[in-house]
Amino acid sequence: MTKRNGYRDWRWLVLWWHNFFILWNMIEAQTRYSIQEELKRGSVVGNLAKDLGLSLTEIFDRKLSVASEAGKQYFTVDAGKGELVVNDRIDREALCGQSASCVLPLQVVIEDPLQLFRVEVEIQDINDNSPRFPSNDITLEIAESTATGVRLPLESALDPDVAACYLCRLWQKTRCSFTG
């Protein structure tokens, strides 16, 4: 009886390793690109064919397709060149909010034989929103006897591009009046 159980265990082990290697061949290594937000439609992200080790004929013959996990199709593949290109304007703040990192996962599917590739596109922030102070006017009262080089505190500005507030000295947009 123990011999029979040992034989079954061995068959399950072989079956497990067989399935593991089949899945290993279907799911390839991950590819990652990094782009700035709000690129124009048609901007090249990277050469997907080259990075995945595919020829241009394979892309067309094996029906390569890209699916976004974000729901909206932000990227397409130029089958003539094998390049991943921007399909629609990407607004990082709308997509990821105030998150420090913004990564769009993509699934690249190639048929006959089936292969799946995971591609990630990191969306980098551009400073498209200027910081704003709570008030347009800042009044500093500085005594005449104040020593030279003294630092004066200012209110923090809010910047929608940065998750935290920071001290910003945009004197072009802020009027300061000194009394003393």
TrEMBL record:
Subcellular localization(s) per the UniProt record: Membrane
Chief localization: membrane
Gene Ontology cellular component list: plasma membrane
Annotated ranges, domain Cadherin: 27-133
InterPro entries: Cadherin-like_dom, Cadherin-like_sf, Cadherin_CS, Cadherin_N, Protocadherin/Cadherin-CA
Membrane topology: Single-pass membrane protein
Segment forming the signal sequence: 1-29
Gene Ontology biological process terms in this record: anatomical structure morphogenesis; homophilic cell adhesion via plasma membrane adhesion molecules
Keywords: Calcium, Cell adhesion, Glycoprotein, Membrane, Repeat, Signal, Transmembrane, Transmembrane helix
Protein name, UniProt field: Cadherin domain-containing protein
Keyword flag Transmembrane: yes
MF terms (GO), sorted A to Z: calcium ion binding
Organism: Fundulus heteroclitus
